[in-house]
């Protein structure tokens, strides 16, 4: 099908940006009137042949060899594909189009779908006759093609969205992955004569209609596509535009009936002459644009007119005989033969012959609020740097006030008001075209240079001049992710650039400290904005309270707040009244424009973003609207891509088409992710950030998405009811696929609850509800799981009666949701399941035995080990009777039996069974299989409980190494094995090894799960216990601080676990002799315990006991005795006399009493105010010696002698002072009081 060029090689492989001989052609849409375009094209090809090949009059002329790009709309797009992609000659195209006219345009069809089917049949017939594959893609072979081709179509879901189906790759996009036949059908599918065409493009299905209404003349698109393909520096030789005929004067019909008006509107929308005039004005100085279109006789040509083709052809030939037309054809052919173009594509894209006018920033809204934080940050960022260019990125979601912020900057720093900048310019950043056009216009206005020869590089040179350093350019709303904004900035080391965008990924362009993430308003700013819009400077307290609630419901988004304030002002109504309306009419209120200078609405702003999104991202936005708006784990999408759950775990009832559609949606999103790990979600994350659809924060093993609550409501409200049910099902599929993703379970419950509450419960299929109930239970949300399973069970029982297997399954799942306080109900349900399955399946059936197993586990949880043992042994016997020896199911049953024997302290019996299971697993699976490793692990734990730590150590080491190899060093089970090995070392008094190993567990837990996760906290607690047992109090202190912070952050300051952590830190301070720090914490813990629990609980007694010890250690013995006595009183009231806690408190009181006696004695000694002023002589020694003898040997004398104590102390002091004199320290005698 692809023919090589015989005249010139124009391969895409060469450097396209250096081309200086670009030849372009395009065809308007026109239906049957395209015959006139083919007549004109045939004449041009004939003249080209005569000029280039005068000696070869029979030469076959191919437009694909004479033009570099051919494009079209409607039937013009059809023949463009024939010329460019299929490389057909003008004669071949005329023959094929004549067949299409006869079979498609002339017959009268009862329905548009019939005409579409007729066109498809004609195209298939053409392909088959010419030996082309029916599924040949428009994009195939684009790198070797010599002529680029495109056609314009409209998106059926958004008619304002023009789609270019192209056969080539540009900077704006890849070739269209659509078949040639579908592309031809789509471009011809003009309303109302053809049905919309749905085609698979990649993984998506898209529906198109023809672009005849609104984009019938593709001249402008031709220039932009050439610019995207060849670059702005390439030069153009010629632009040929062939229309389908003038429509004549368009006047309002006299009758004014609907049919006449409809025809008029269609003619106005399909008229290509307005676009032709605009293109002519853009190229008026260059002389490269040639427009050919039959002027007369084309009015009123209908599709079904029997002789319309003959009439059209005759008018075309008459038009070609006109002198002016002949001259245009001659000039066009001459330009095609030239070697060098005169006008660059940049010049054609961004300039016009009109005189430039200054383009100012949009008007600042009358109720603008200067937000102090963002304003100051932006002012600091734009201070000109003397050595480099400042690039400031202001990123934020739509409607958050980015444009208003930079508009105020331009107003404040206008050269007429500030000397900081010589030029402060505003540029529309919505497209590359608008950026270049605005910059060129600004420079033309500032320099006085006019004319279409002024190019973008000239504008850049103006800003790059060394004598023009003080300028500020604001690129506003650079939201199109296809724009390479780097190439559109002045390349110099001076000036300031501000870029406002929704694309958070542009932060890499920002200079140091110049990235501003503009968030929503604060509460106070939001209230101020509402009342400024209302015009109420002094609102009442009630009104302010209502405004605060309104602001919260609207997520503090400026555009929504302005809408609310303007609505309140225009109605008028109170904030309280508006709050009531907001609860029931959110969508209507947010769709209504504000009515201020901007006249925006929040939902309209969101719609603009939505229409820019790829189809798969639109689907994802719809799905996200069913989840809670905070902390959705994006790794759930990657997990779904790797482990999709499209088959129901509980097939209670058959599914309908809605489920199939939901599965397709999830598959599309998973295909977009495309890989099977967390890297898969990076592309989705980038898209969410590129359009500011969500804010992302990092968490262990995932990123968490925050969606603005108002955007979430908008996405939900824009869906049709049927779509909502389908996307809710898709959201549930993603969640259910994460049932086995344990690392995501902490994040999922809020989203499960929200997705179930989004629509009435009846909208969710019973199988889906069952899957969500199972997920809630896997996430340890027992009560929520129970609220799901209870109605599922009741619904099935009402429908099928009690004796039904589905009912039995629901009963078993419901029983599993009960906690320890529901053992009676759990046991009742499980017994009912055993009864149902025994009757319907038989007692020997494996499902029945599984129910029996669940019942035995319930008995174990009630410590009814003997009853559970009887059941388990009976079940094992039945399994051994039915299955072959050492079947995997039997081995699992033996494993659980061994665990039960351990509960009964029959450790030797448990050891024998576990050894048997371990050896059998080795034979069946090998030593390195995970099941074998688990068997080794179970035996090791039995030895640990038995106290045989030396026997358990090699088994623990083997299990740990096996888990490392199979699961990885960071897996949860590997870390659990490491923890048990550390405990083993600790029990063997190998504390240093135990602490070193547990420290590795802590570091890995913190890295994988974060500092506040329960697994991390448990690991920290154990490490703290190791340090405490080794008296490493300085090493222990940071651990206690971390544990307190984790408990405080997760549980709150008054949770019992937080108070325990605070008490443990206080005890460590005491061990470090930091008694003041310990006392402060203990007093705080005690006061909170009393407030929360009262004064007579054991926890309060423990706090008093600890505080009493601290007072004792600091010498405050009376206070210590008060708290110790209170603690003893509480313990005696609730504990038996021999309880260790009571004994400990009693001993504390005894210790305090002894200390009090010693303190009293010391105090009495210190109070004696007698100083020894004379040296001790030998004369007093006999008296003192005699007194000493009396005190020791005559107690009655001690009792009667009032001076006994004085004599005793005098003797002690005499001895001390004698010793000091003897040793030469007599000068210190007077320092000792008696």
UniProtKB/TrEMBL annotation:
One of its GO terms (molecular function) is ADP binding. One of its GO terms (biological process) is glycerolipid metabolic process. Residues 25-223 form the PNPLA domain. SUPFAM superfamilies: FabD/lysophospholipase-like, P-loop containing nucleoside triphosphate hydrolases, TPR-like. Pfam families: NB-ARC (PF00931), TPR_12 (PF13424). PROSITE patterns: PNPLA (PS51635). It comes from the Eukaryota. Keywords: Lipid metabolism. PANTHER family: AAA+ ATPASE DOMAIN-CONTAINING PROTEIN-RELATED (PTHR46082:SF6), ATP/GTP-BINDING PROTEIN-RELATED (PTHR46082). This is PNPLA domain-containing protein. It comes from Serendipita vermifera MAFF 305830.
């Amino acid at each position: 099908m692809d023919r090589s060029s015989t005249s010139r090689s124009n391969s895409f492989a060469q450097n396209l940006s250096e081309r200086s001989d670009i030849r372009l052609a395009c065809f308007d849409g026109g239906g049957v009137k395209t015959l006139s375009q083919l007549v004109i094209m045939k004449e041009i090809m004939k003249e080209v042949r005569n000029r280039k090949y005068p000696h070869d009059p029979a030469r076959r002329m191919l437009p694909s060899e004479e033009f570099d790009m051919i494009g079209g709309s409607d039937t013009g797009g059809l023949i463009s594909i024939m010329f460019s992609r299929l490389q057909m000659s003008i004669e071949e195209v005329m023959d094929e189009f004549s067949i299409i006219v006869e079979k498609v345009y002339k017959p009268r069809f009862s329905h548009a779908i019939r005409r579409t089917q007729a066109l498809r049949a004609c195209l298939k017939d053409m392909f088959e006759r010419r030996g082309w594959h029916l599924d040949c893609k428009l994009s195939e072979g684009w790198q070797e093609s010599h002529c680029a081709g495109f056609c314009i179509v409209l998106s059926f879901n958004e008619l304002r969205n023009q789609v270019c189906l192209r056969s080539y790759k540009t900077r704006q996009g890849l070739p269209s992955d659509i078949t040639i036949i579908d592309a031809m059908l789509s471009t011809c599918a003009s309303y109302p004569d053809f049905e919309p065409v749905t085609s698979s493009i990649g993984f998506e299905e898209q529906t198109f209609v023809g672009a005849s209404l609104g984009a019938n003349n593709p001249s402008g698109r031709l220039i932009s596509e050439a610019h995207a393909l060849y670059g702005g520096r390439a030069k153009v030789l010629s632009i040929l535009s062939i229309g389908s005929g003038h429509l004549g004067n368009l006047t309002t019909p006299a009758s004014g009936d609907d049919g006449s008006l409809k025809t008029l509107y269609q003619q106005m929308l399909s008229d290509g002459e307005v676009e032709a005039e605009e293109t002519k004005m853009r190229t008026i100085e260059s002389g490269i644009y040639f427009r050919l279109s039959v002027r007369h006789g084309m009015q009123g040509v209908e599709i079904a007119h029997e002789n319309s083709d003959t009439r059209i052809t005759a008018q075309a030939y008459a038009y070609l005989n006109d002198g002016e037309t002949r001259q245009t054809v001659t000039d066009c052919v001459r330009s095609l033969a030239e070697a060098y173009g005169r006008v660059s594509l940049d010049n054609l894209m961004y300039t016009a012959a009109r005189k430039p006018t200054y383009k100012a920033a949009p008007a600042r809204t009358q109720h603008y609020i200067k937000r102090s934080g963002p304003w100051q940050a932006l002012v600091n960022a734009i201070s000109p740097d003397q050595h480099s260019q400042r690039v400031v990125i202001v990123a934020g979601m739509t409607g958050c006030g980015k444009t208003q912020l930079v508009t105020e900057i331009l107003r404040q720093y206008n050269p007429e008001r500030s000397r900081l900048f010589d030029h402060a310019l505003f540029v529309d950043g919505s497209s590359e075209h608008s950026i270049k056009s605005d910059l060129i216009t600004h420079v033309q206005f500032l320099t006085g240079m006019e004319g279409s020869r002024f190019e973008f590089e000239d504008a850049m040179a103006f800003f790059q001049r060394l004598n023009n350093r003080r300028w500020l350019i604001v690129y506003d709303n650079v939201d199109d992710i296809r724009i390479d904004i780097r190439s559109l900035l002045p390349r110099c080391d001076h000036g300031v650039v501000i870029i406002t965008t929704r694309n958070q990924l542009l932060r890499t362009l920002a200079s140091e400290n110049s990235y501003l993430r503009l968030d929503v308003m604060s509460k106070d700013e939001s209230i101020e904005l509402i009342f400024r819009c209302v015009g109420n400077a002094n609102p009442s307290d009630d009104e302010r309270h209502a405004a605060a609630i309104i602001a919260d419901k609207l997520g503090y988004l400026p555009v929504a707040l302005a809408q609310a304030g303007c609505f309140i002002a225009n109605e008028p109504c109170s904030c309280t009244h508006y709050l009531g309306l907001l609860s029931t009419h959110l969508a209507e209120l947010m769709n209504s424009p504000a009515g201020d200078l901007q006249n925006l609405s929040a939902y309209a702003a969101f719609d603009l973003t939505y229409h820019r999104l790829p189809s798969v991202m639109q689907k994802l936005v719809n799905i996200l609207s069913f989840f809670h708006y905070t902390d959705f784990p994006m790794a759930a999408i990657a997990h779904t891509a790797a482990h999709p759950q499209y088959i129901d775990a509980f097939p209670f009832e058959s599914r309908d088409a809605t489920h199939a559609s939901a599965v397709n949606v999830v598959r599309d999103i998973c295909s977009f992710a495309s890989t099977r790990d967390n890297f898969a979600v990076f592309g989705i994350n980038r898209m969410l950030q590129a359009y500011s659809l969500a804010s992302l924060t990092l968490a262990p093993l995932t990123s968490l998405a925050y969606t603005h609550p108002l955007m979430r409501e908008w996405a939900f409200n824009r869906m049709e009811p049927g779509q909502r049910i389908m996307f809710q099902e898709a959201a549930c599929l993603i969640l259910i696929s994460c049932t086995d993703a344990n690392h995501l379970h902490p994040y999922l419950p809020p989203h499960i609850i929200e997705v179930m509450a989004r629509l009435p419960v009846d909208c969710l299929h019973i199988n889906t509800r069952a899957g969500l109930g199972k997920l809630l239970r896997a996430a340890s949300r027992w009560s929520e799981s129970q609220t799901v399973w209870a109605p599922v069970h009741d619904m099935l029982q009402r429908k099928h009666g009690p004796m039904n297997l589905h009912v039995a399954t629901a009963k078993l799942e419901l029983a599993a949701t009960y906690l320890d306080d529901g053992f009676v109900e759990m046991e009742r349900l499980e017994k009912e399941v055993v009864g149902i399955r025994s009757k319907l399946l038989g007692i020997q059936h494996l499902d029945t035995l599984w129910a029996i197993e669940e019942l035995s586990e319930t008995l174990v949880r009630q410590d009814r080990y003997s009853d559970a043992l009887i059941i388990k042994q009976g079940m094992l016997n039945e399994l051994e009777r039915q299955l072959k020896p050492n079947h995997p199911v039997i081995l699992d049953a033996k494993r659980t039996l061994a665990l039960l024997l351990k509960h009964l302290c029959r450790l030797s019996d448990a050891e024998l069974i576990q050894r048997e299971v371990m050896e059998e697993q080795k034979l069946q699976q090998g030593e390195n299989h995970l099941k074998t490793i688990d068997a080794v692990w179970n035996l090791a734990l039995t030895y640990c409980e038995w106290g045989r730590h030396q026997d358990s150590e090699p088994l623990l080491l083997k299990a740990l190494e096996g888990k490392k190899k199979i699961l990885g060093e960071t897996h949860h089970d590997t870390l659990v094995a490491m923890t048990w090995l550390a405990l083993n070392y600790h029990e063997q008094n190998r504390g240093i090894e135990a602490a070193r190993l547990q420290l590795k567990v802590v570091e890995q837990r913190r890295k994988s799960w974060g500092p506040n996760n329960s697994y991390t906290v448990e690991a920290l607690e154990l490490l703290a216990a190791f340090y405490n047992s080794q008296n490493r109090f300085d090493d222990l202190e940071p651990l206690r601080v971390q544990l307190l912070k984790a408990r405080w952050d997760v549980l709150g300051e008054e949770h019992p676990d937080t108070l325990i952590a605070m008490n443990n830190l206080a005890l460590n301070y005491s061990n470090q002799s930091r008694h003041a720090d310990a006392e402060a914490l203990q007093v705080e813990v005690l006061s909170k315990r009393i407030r929360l629990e009262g004064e007579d609980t054991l926890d309060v007694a423990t706090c008093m006991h600890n505080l009493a010890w601290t007072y004792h250690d600091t010498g405050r013995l009376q206070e210590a005795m008060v708290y110790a006595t209170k603690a003893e009183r509480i313990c005696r009231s609730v504990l038996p006399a021999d309880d260790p806690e009571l004994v400990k408190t009693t001993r504390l009181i005894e210790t305090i009493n002894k200390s009090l006696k010693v303190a009293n004695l010391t105090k009495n000694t210190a109070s004696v105010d007698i100083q020894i002023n004379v040296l001790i002589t030998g004369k007093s020694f006999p008296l003192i010696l005699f007194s000493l003898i009396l005190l020791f040997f005559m107690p009655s004398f001690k009792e009667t002698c009032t001076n006994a104590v004085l004599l005793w102390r005098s003797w002690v002091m005499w001895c001390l002072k004698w010793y000091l004199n003897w040793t030469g320290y007599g000068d210190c005698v007077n320092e000792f009081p008696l």
